[in-house]
Specification:
With 332 residues, the protein is α/β, with parallel strands linked by helices. Helix content is 45%, strand content 11%. Strand 2 and strand 3 form a beta hairpin.
């Protein structure tokens, strides 16, 4: 018996976008909703995602639903820690919140939004936190607005939860959140469903049983897996290459000029070069053509912040022009 990878876009949607009871179980566990606060019923909402059986290179995947009280939940599976990831999560959550308001409606018609991101990478590595003298962030973290002095947390209109899969402990999972993380990490290694695995985790694993996939579903699963591997390999290689070149150039310049800043400038140039290469690599892997004018604009950009925005756009843009298009003006 072979089980598919639950972090794969196709499998994630096969399980959570079509089985509300399983999604409800995931929400209750990750948000620690128990007793009277437990989510009883959910209704799926439209999501910006591609058809179920199509492979989507680095698509921004989310599953959206609403409970009986009107709270909107946006759940996404994210495999790549691209620049500006947290900014995008905050932006999309706030957009989901303000997007509820219809023309002429009162503001009190707005209901809470909870954005849940399941990440196959560390957002807040323990070493980085400790190096800065900051407390470590647990595998499952929940975020909301808190008043500094009183610690009051009545502003719950937009909330966030992050599940960092690499932080999964080695011990046997004994809570709902740990069970989900364990399935996301270890499902492909299993040869049978553990006898003591309760619902809804058992149902989720059963839906990942490749023996129950049609040929079209197997093809879609393999396509998404190959696309993700391809883009990850290309982007990582280009980024490492650019950074290595930058260090080499910096050392050479610093030695020739006798200035320490030569190394820093060279490394910065190499990082910029790596970001340019990453944008072009992602677009190439997604089979998006880049015309000479757009390529020249990308390669000539020396603003690291803009390049970070373009990397994030490249993962989901429909065209190369869309990647470098100016941001739309905000209405007051």
């Amino acid at each position: 018996m072979a089980f598919a990878d639950l972090t794969n876009d196709f499998v994630f949607r096969r399980i959570f976008a079509t089985h509300p009871d399983i999604l409800r179980g995931l929400l209750n566990d990750l948000l620690d909703r128990q007793g009277d606060e437990a989510i009883d019923t959910i209704e799926y909402l439209p999501s910006e995602q591609l058809p179920l059986v199509m492979g989507a290179k680095l698509s921004i995947l989310d599953v959206r639903c609403k409970d009986l009280e009107g709270t909107t939940f946006v759940v996404e599976m994210q495999l790549i820690h691209h620049p500006g990831f947290i900014n995008r999560v905050v932006y999309n959550a706030c957009k989901a919140y303000v997007g509820q308001l219809k023309a002429g409606a009162w503001y009190d018609s707005l209901t809470n939004v909870v954005a849940i991101s399941i990440c196959d990478f560390e957002l807040w590595p323990d070493r980085a936190q400790e190096a800065q003298g900051l407390p470590t962030v647990p595998m499952l973290s929940r975020w909301a607005i808190t008043e500094n002095a009183s610690k009051s947390h009545t502003l719950q209109h937009v909330q966030y939860a992050f599940l960092e899969l690499p932080k999964l402990p080695e011990r046997k999972p004994d809570t709902g959140a740990l069970r989900w993380a364990w399935l996301f990490v270890h499902a492909p290694e299993l040869t049978e469903i553990p006898a003591d695995l309760p619902a809804p985790y058992r149902e989720a694993l059963e839906l990942a049983n490749q023996a129950k996939f049609t040929q079209a579903e197997l093809d879609a699963y393999e396509k998404v897996r190959d696309e993700i591997r391809q883009v990850l390999a290309i982007a990582d290689a280009r980024w490492a290459e650019g950074k290595a070149e930058g260090k080499a150039e910096g050392k050479a310049e610093g030695k020739a000029e006798g200035k320490a800043e030569g190394m820093a400038e060279g490394e910065a140039a190499g990082i910029r070069k790596g970001k340019v290469s990453s944008i072009l690599a992602i677009l190439a892997a997604r089979n998006i053509l880049v015309n000479p004018a757009v390529r020249a604009r990308i390669e000539s950009c020396d603003d690291s912040v803009i390049l970070d925005h373009w990397i994030a756009r490249a993962t989901s843009a429909a065209s190369a022009d869309e990647v470098v298009a100016p941001a739309s003006p905000q209405r007051s």
